[in-house]
Fold these 2 entries.
Entry 1:
Amino acid sequence: MSEPEIKVLLIDDDRDDYLTFESLLSEINARKFSITWASSYDRGLELLQYSIFDICFLNHELGIKSGLDLLSEITTRKLELPYPIVLLNGYGEFDVDLEAIRLGAADCLVRDQVTPYCLDRVIRYTMFRLKQKNELKDRDAQLLIQERLASVGLLASSLAHEIGTPLGVIRGRAEYVSLRHPDDQQIKKDMNILIGQVDRISKLIRSLLNVAKGEVGDSLQQLNLSQVVDEVYSLVSQALQRNGISFINELGNKLDISVLADSEPLQQIFISLFSNSIHAIEAAIESGRSSNHFIRIRSEEVDEIWNISFEDSGCGISSDHLRNLFRPFFTTKGIGGGMGLGLALSYRVLETWKGTMQVESSVGVGTQVKISIPKARR
Ligand SMILES: Nc1ncnc2c1ncn2[C@@H]1O[C@H](COP(=O)(O)OP(=O)(O)O)[C@@H](O)[C@H]1O
Ligand SMILES: [Mg+2]
């Protein structure tokens, strides 16, 4: 199988240099390249920000500015480029090379000494090293999530213990009151509600424990997702109204959306999503975008999966934050605002059901959370 073409960006303000570089690349037979040439600092910066390449070669001399200036601008703008940058240094000064590496360059070459062979090596090795580095980073992030989930587990088990006892007392008293007033239907009804709610809390804590331990709950069942959404909607409808948010429910033929899940956690996932969207819309309103706010939910059936999209017109999420969303305890809300567990737990719960969650967002426009949940077999 032929290897895919390698997309190379060359930032160099000299046309002759570009032509030389192009001919050097064309002499490498083992790989095919497509070159994009940026002939100025500004054009280079623009391409780095908005296009994707496999590798970038950056000339140190760029008119008034230099390659080092561009490298430091990349750092200041926090552009985390997913590909390596190699500095082409006309004179090979050691201190320039050192500074370039410090600023994140993957390697440096003395321009006049570049041969097709050395270019090929540098391309292969810098791309490989970066790939390895990213894999390590992903593994570290995964480890951190595991560690934090372990602390969620600890929290949940102490919660289960601390809350379990008083809950038991409340439940027992409710049953007792009910028994003492056998003829009072109203009391009986109220006490049953109390008992029902207590059972719900206990169930939720149990699910939280299971999730933290990475176990699939033993109560996976066939659930009607629209019904769950309707129930959650009734809990949040006041907050929606207060903020003038329209809820656009496009779940389609409601009876069809039957998923294999666990009822309390599924409800909790939608409570988290609604509450995040409401917070985000409140933030958008505060920043001056005051009208036409909505939360829209849609469903799509793909083979054995239901894809659900939950979209809002809120403040959006910066790419920096997007990377951290599923980390337990990651929150941008101040004290009392949030625990940073909503998405982390939702993600984890979905994982145990063999579902997934992805988030796409655009700052100042809104956010779309995409969930997939396996269908229940009928
Ligand atoms: N719909 C959304 N719009 C904008 N930001 C969001 C949205 N959902 C989540 N976030 C961001 O992700 C962070 C983590 O969310 P979450 O795990 O639910 O924790 P919490 O809501 O307690 O902060 C939030 O603090 C917020 O910054
Ligand atoms: Mg939340």
Note: The longest helix spans residues 116-180.
Entry 2:
Amino acid sequence: MAHFGQNELVTSDEDKQFSPSTDELLGNNENFVTQFADHGLSLKPKRQLAVVACMDSRMDIFQMLGLAHGDAHIIRNAGGVVTDDVVRSLVLSQRLLNTQEIILIHHTDCGLQKVEETKFYAELAYEVGMKPWWALEAFDDPYEDVRQSIGRLLHSPFITYKGHIRGFVYDVNNGRLNEVSADPRHV
Ligand SMILES: [Zn+2]
């Protein structure tokens, strides 16, 4: 298994050449404002849909699903893992903002497949002098990881609508969503 060693991250050429983008992006936003056409969209997602996805920069969730602005909640983190904070967002999404369907999207070539969780914790705890109080949620198989996430949703007492939950692995090489079959233990 490949591993991101600390030195690799700190001394890569990309880091040496780093310059922040925010000022340039604010210029882009000025152009966006002049073309803004989303006035009057409802706070409640039109499709009553919430998508939980990995933060990966190659995935544009709206684009890959043909969603329009205002259609769905998009909840993202490293891996698209169902964490306590994702449950918090889904509870708000379902109970206050009327969503009833959940799509989970993990993907091939995920950063979380490239770390060894135990080693990562040990290095981090040694460096900062404090053990992380959260799980990194590293995994080997994105399909199995989607099953884990579906299982967590199905077992959560806080998720009201469980009748329309489906999970997918996005192939970063061709853009296709491959559906993950449910774990028979959870159906
Ligand atoms: Zn990822």
Note: The chain has a mean pLDDT of 92.
